[in-house]
């Protein structure tokens, strides 16, 4: 074939290659969904839906009757999620504002890579730091016998969510047109008034999206939580209680199940619940973003 | 349908079917061992010593807990499961459903230690008191002669043979939901070391400075025995003495790596390694049971 038609074919092949990659992502997502659902839903042949979703005790290897209630696991996940976001969002947004609005270019060049590097810390290393430094510190402050509880885990997981929240918030804030700032300053507002009254509201949908992504990260974190959250089965009543979130439970118990067992299927059902939670969070953030853009 | 749709469908089919490729069988001079955290250090030491004497052999040892090892054995993923508890009826059934014949050997004995912080004035407990503490019925150290402090329970996770053993033989009931489920013996030691109100249970091979083992009496009125008293562990006067098992996937045929490794672990050299690791060798009854199994194995090749 001549040069021109080869170029045409090459063009289409490359387009096809890119399309294939995109489709692969969807295949993987749907594949995971089906895999989890197929095995997980089989657990409900023997476990009542009521016990699963409303039971307070998860004890598949109990001395007596096994218990399959996920409420304390979900509560553990929610405790850690809420506390770590309470730490990470203010810290993250404040850092983002500093980097985007107030820092000198030199400091910005140093801070941005430094924050990216936090994201590169392996979670097991953070868990170690948690065990050796954060846990004893928390135990000192609150006068507890040890620091293995939801608060310690939340602090460490907040550190992990920070880079995500900071990066995206900073991008969003930087993307706000200069004209907004110039108009505000021209009207006589101070820089803080500008940030509070103009920049933050304009960036709010992006910041919410960043927080949702941070939340997704937090809910799925396993290693750090496994090491410092205490892992006790009791229903957590305060943030200073040891907790056992969904991720730890799956990580601990998946090693001892025989394939095809009821326990095996129940763990898949639990994983499916976690998957749906993260999926719902991401969907909510997408919808929120589009709605805000629609309103604007 | 147009050309690009056909290509997409072909791609999807290829990706979906690629999961059906089978792996190769492992060559027979490798041994996969998995299971008990209590045994993992000891069996690793044994494997290293064996591999130094037999350079062709390749033995890999991982932990994860007795339940983990036995599940892997039943799933057909490993050759030997280390276990600090006996295999259960239900597990044996699942294995035979999958066509796996399980052989049991005792390779060492443990004096399970109940440990506390060195500053804790309590030094002796009865087995019942330990059970009541772990069931959550006794919650304050002052109830057993200590200070007025809430007891913090350190235990293992349900993957652990030690967890199951304690539950079967000491608690005879469920663990208190407040117990902290730690990942392994070392995690329990690390926890109790810094927690004045802590109590934990560990295999004796993990006993270190920084934690104190309690003397245990089998019932009120009996003598309090220390786990460090070797004779008491061997003749059973120490109430928490227990055999440490290895379960093989099928009969370890004479000449196979599994057979040779088992024989090595039970030889004098193996016994030295066991003692150096802090554990006790199998007692006379254990040895008799092992020998009977070996006789059955050796008879089958003649």
Automatic annotation (TrEMBL), chain A:
Keywords: Cell membrane, Membrane, Phosphate transport, Transmembrane, Transmembrane helix, Transport. Part of the binding-protein-dependent transport system for phosphate; probably responsible for the translocation of the substrate across the membrane. It is a multi-pass membrane protein. SUPFAM superfamilies: MetI-like. The keyword Transmembrane helix applies. This is Phosphate transport system permease protein. NCBIfam families: phosphate_pstC. Pfam families: BPD_transp_1. One of its GO terms (cellular component) is plasma membrane. It comes from the Archaea. It is found in: Cell membrane. The gene is pstC. GO terms for molecular function: phosphate transmembrane transporter activity. Its main location: membrane. Belongs to the binding-protein-dependent transport system permease family. CysTW subfamily. One of its GO terms (biological process) is phosphate ion transport. It comes from Candidatus Syntropharchaeum butanivorans. The chain crosses the membrane at residues 12-39, 78-99, 119-139, 151-176, 197-219, 266-289. Gene3D superfamilies: MetI-like. InterPro entries: MetI-like, MetI-like_sf, Phosphate_PstC, Phosphate_Transport_Permease. Residues 74-285 form the ABC transmembrane type-1 domain. PROSITE patterns: ABC_TM1.
């Amino acid at each position: 074939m001549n040069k021109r038609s080869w170029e045409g074919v090459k063009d289409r092949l490359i387009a096809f290659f890119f399309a294939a990659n995109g489709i692969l992502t969807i295949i993987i997502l749907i594949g995971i969904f089906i895999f989890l659902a197929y095995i997980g839903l089989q657990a409900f042949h023997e476990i009542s839906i009521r016990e699963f979703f409303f039971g307070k005790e998860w004890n598949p290897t109990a001395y007596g009757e096994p218990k399959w209630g996920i409420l304390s696991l979900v509560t553990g996940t929610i405790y850690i999620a809420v506390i770590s976001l309470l730490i990470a969002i203010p810290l993250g947004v404040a850092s983002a504002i500093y980097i985007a609005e107030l820092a000198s270019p030199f400091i910005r060049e140093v801070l941005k890579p430094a924050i990216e590097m936090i994201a590169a810390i392996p979670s097991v290393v953070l868990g170690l730091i948690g065990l050796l430094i954060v846990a004893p510190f928390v135990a000192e402050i609150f006068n507890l016998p040890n620091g293995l509880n939801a608060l310690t885990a939340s602090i460490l997981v907040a550190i992990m969510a920070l880079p995500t929240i900071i990066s995206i918030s900073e991008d969003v804030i930087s993307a706000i047109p200069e004209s907004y700032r110039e108009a505000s300053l021209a009207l006589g507002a101070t820089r803080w008034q500008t940030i509070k009254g103009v920049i933050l509201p304009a960036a709010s949908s992006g910041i919410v999206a960043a927080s949702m992504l941070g939340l997704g990260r937090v809910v799925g974190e396993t290693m750090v939580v496994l090491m410092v959250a205490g892992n006790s089965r009791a229903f957590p009543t305060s943030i200073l209680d040891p907790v056992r979130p969904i991720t730890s439970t799956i990580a601990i118990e998946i090693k001892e199940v025989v394939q095809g067992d009821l326990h095996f299927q129940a763990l898949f059902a639990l994983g499916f619940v976690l998957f749906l939670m993260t999926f719902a969070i991401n969907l909510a953030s997408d919808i929120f973003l589009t709605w805000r853009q629609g309103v604007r | 349908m147009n050309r690009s749709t056909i290509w997409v469908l072909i791609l999807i089919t290829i990706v979906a079917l690629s999961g059906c490729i089978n792996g190769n069988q492992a060559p027979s001079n490798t041994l996969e061992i998995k299971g008990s955290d209590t045994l993992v250090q000891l069996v690793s030491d044994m494997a290293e010593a064996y591999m130094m004497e037999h350079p062709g052999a390749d033995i890999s040892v991982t932990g994860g807990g007795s339940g983990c090892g036995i599940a892997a054995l039943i799933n057909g993923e490993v050759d030997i499961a280390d276990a600090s508890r006996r295999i259960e009826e239900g597990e044996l059934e699942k294995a035979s459903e999958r066509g796996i014949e399980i052989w049991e050997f005792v390779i060492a004995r443990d004096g399970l230690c109940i440990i506390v912080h060195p500053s804790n004035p309590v030094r002796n407990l009865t087995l019942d008191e330990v059970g009541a503490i772990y069931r959550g019925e006794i919650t304050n150290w002052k109830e057993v002669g200590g200070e007025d402090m809430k007891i913090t329970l350190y235990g293992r996770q349900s993957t652990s043979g030690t967890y199951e053993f304690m539950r079967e033989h000491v608690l005879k009931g469920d663990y208190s939901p407040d117990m902290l489920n730690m990942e392994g013996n070392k995690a329990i030691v690390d926890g109790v070391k810094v927690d004045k109100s802590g109590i934990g249970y560990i295999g004796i091979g993990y006993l270190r400075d920084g934690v104190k083992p309690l003397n245990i009496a089998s019932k009120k009125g009996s003598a309090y025995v220390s786990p460090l008293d070797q004779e008491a562990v061997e003749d059973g006067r120490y109430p928490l003495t227990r055999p440490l098992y290895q379960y093989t996937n099928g009969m370890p045929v004479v000449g196979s790596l599994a057979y040779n490794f088992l024989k090595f672990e039970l030889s004098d050299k193996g016994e030295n390694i066991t003692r150096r690791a802090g554990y006790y060798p199998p007692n006379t009854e254990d040895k008799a049971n092992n020998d009977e199994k070996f006789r059955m194995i050796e008879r089958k090749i003649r």
